[in-house]
Amino acid sequence: ATAGQSGSVGVGFAIPSNLAKRIAFDMINGGTATHGLLGATVMDATGDSGITSKTVVGASVQSVTDGGAAQKASIQKGDIITGFNGLPITGSTDLTAQVRAAEAGSQATVTYVRNGQSATVTVTLGELK
Question: pTM for the complete prediction?
């Protein structure tokens, strides 16, 4: 290393190829790319003092938007989202990234825990504007 240099060598930021491909296709064919919207405010389940069981890891639903995708799928405040389209969700950032990677209007499966019971529902995502 030469004195006076700064920065990071070999650090990169990856965009999943399927997301890049979908966005490129959308832009080439329609001029715009869309991102999904769940219509729920979430926080990490491990940081939520209202959780009765600290063994559930996921995104804790703090509120749902009236008429939003989550509400239409019967997701409620207090639910802990543990899966999205078959992928495990470990926290709010993880869920947000997965939802935004999905196309607006697409259907997704959401697995959540409510009162100790796990359930899976199909959600039609809204559009992030």
Answer: 0.73
